């Protein structure tokens, strides 16, 4: 590995360490032992669930190619995964709200384990079934667990601001540290130990089974709206009505889809009342848009290196720094979007609405995968940059709507207080 990579990695490590050591009492909330136990349990489960997901990612395409499938067949397999997430996601999300988020989390484990098992077969139909199961599991991963956490946090009477602590720690470990370790472990199993490309999927199934055992033994059940009077279609109508009637929810869904279509600063930002998450996320989306535009700019302004296998070019250095900056934006995005979802999405249809948010994302991914040859790399980066800029504008709109709503609520409170003070004393 070249010195530039080591210097960049070392510099980033120093920055993260300095930020962590410079935390003050304002950045560290005083919490209870009961909450810490609850938080650590969720983070452990979430990390195991994400390990089961991260172990598979780098080797899905490689495994299919090892079975002799070309780009066309592999593209169809990937489309099946995203398509099933789009079609079945809203259904399993609604069932999670009605039948219980703990059950949905266990269902995620079982479904993803079955998906991992299909990777042992080279038959196209079996692999297609595995992709469909994986798509369903992905919908549960990004809705059921967060819905269970928010409901359980509120049910146990913990302080609302403590929820941000759990979000930021879960993302740092589950989407950051665990992702790195999972990649190294998968490489160790596949290349160094020679177990082959199926080994990461077997390891993922083991982690998922461990996580499922912890869920079954330590989690309690909670629901969105468990009433039998509401059928599946009614639950969809409730979710759709909530999205269409509340602009904040609609904007939040659009922002999430735009950013996903295209992890320790967040803990400090979320621990302070100012700047508010609706405010600083505008800057995050704008910076992310600029970083994804760098490959397009460098392709036109910086001459490519003519030395095959040589050192990293100047343009490559710029793109690598931009990529690291984008990853920092991703690290801020996840806990921040989780906090906003916990504030704005109604509890009775939380999982359903969260899966509604993923429909535009899955449609976009399926369209791009189906026509991947029609999109040059620079066009793809340009499209992602435009999405992020649009997300920044929508985030601005969300902040304005929130401020208007907050101002009206404050005016109503003040009016009620004035009316109370103006009431004459009833002296009998």
UniProtKB/TrEMBL annotation:
Membrane topology of the entry: Multi-pass membrane protein
InterPro entries: MFS_trans_sf, MOT2/MFSD5
UniProt entry keywords in alphabetical sequence: Cell membrane, Ion transport, Membrane, Transmembrane, Transmembrane helix, Transport
Domain of life, per lineage: Eukaryota
GO molecular function: molybdate ion transmembrane transporter activity
Localization of this protein: Cell membrane
Gene Ontology cellular component list: plasma membrane
Function: Mediates high-affinity intracellular uptake of the rare oligo-element molybdenum.
Protein name: Molybdate-anion transporter
Source organism of this protein record: Ensete ventricosum
């Amino acid at each position: 590995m070249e010195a530039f990579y080591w210097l960049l990695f070392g510099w980033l490590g120093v920055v993260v360490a300095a930020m962590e050591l410079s935390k003050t009492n304002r950045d560290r909330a005083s919490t209870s032992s009961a909450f810490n136990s609850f938080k650590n349990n969720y983070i452990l489960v979430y990390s195991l669930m994400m390990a089961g997901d991260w172990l598979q990612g780098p080797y899905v395409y490689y495994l299919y190619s090892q079975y002799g499938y070309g780009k066309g067949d592999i593209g169809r397999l990937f489309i099946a995964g995203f398509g099933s997430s789009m079609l079945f996601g809203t259904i399993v999300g609604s069932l999670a709200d009605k039948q219980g988020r703990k059950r949905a989390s266990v269902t995620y484990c079982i479904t993803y384990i079955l998906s991992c098992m299909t990777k042992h077969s080279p038959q196209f139909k079996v692999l297609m079934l595995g992709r469909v199961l994986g798509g369903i599991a992905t919908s549960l991963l990004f809705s059921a667990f967060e819905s269970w956490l928010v409901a359980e946090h509120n049910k146990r009477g913990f302080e609302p601001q403590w929820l941000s602590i759990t979000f930021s720690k879960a993302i740092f470990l589950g989407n950051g540290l665990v992702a790195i370790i999972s990649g190294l472990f998968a490489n160790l199993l596949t290349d160094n130990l020679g177990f082959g490309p199926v080994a990461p999927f077997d390891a993922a199934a083991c982690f998922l089974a461990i996580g499922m055992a912890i869920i079954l033994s330590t989690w309690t059940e909670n629901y969105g709206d468990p009433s039998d009077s509401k059928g599946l279609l009614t639950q969809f109508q409730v979710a759709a009505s909530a999205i269409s009637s509340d602009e904040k929810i609609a904007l939040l869904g659009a922002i999430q889809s735009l950013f996903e279509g295209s992890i320790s600063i967040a803990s400090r930002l979320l621990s302070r009342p100012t700047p508010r998450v609706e405010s600083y996320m505008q800057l995050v989306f704008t910076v992310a848009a600029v970083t994804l535009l760098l490959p397009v700019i460098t392709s036109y302004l910086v001459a490519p290196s003519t030395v095959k296998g040589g050192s990293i070019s100047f343009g490559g250095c710029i793109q690598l720094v931009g990529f690291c900056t984008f990853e920092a934006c991703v690290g801020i995005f996840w806990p921040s979007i989780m906090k906003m979802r916990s504030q704005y999405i109604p509890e009775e249809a939380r999982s359903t609405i969260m899966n509604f948010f993923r429909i535009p994302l899955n449609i976009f991914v399926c369209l791009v995968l189906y026509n991947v040859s029609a999109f040059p790399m620079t066009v793809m980066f340009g499209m992602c940059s435009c999405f992020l800029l649009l997300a920044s504008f929508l985030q601005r709109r969300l902040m304005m709507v929130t401020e208007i709503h907050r101002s009206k609520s404050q005016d109503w409170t003040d009016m009620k207080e004035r009316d109370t003070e103006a009431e004459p004393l009833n002296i009998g």
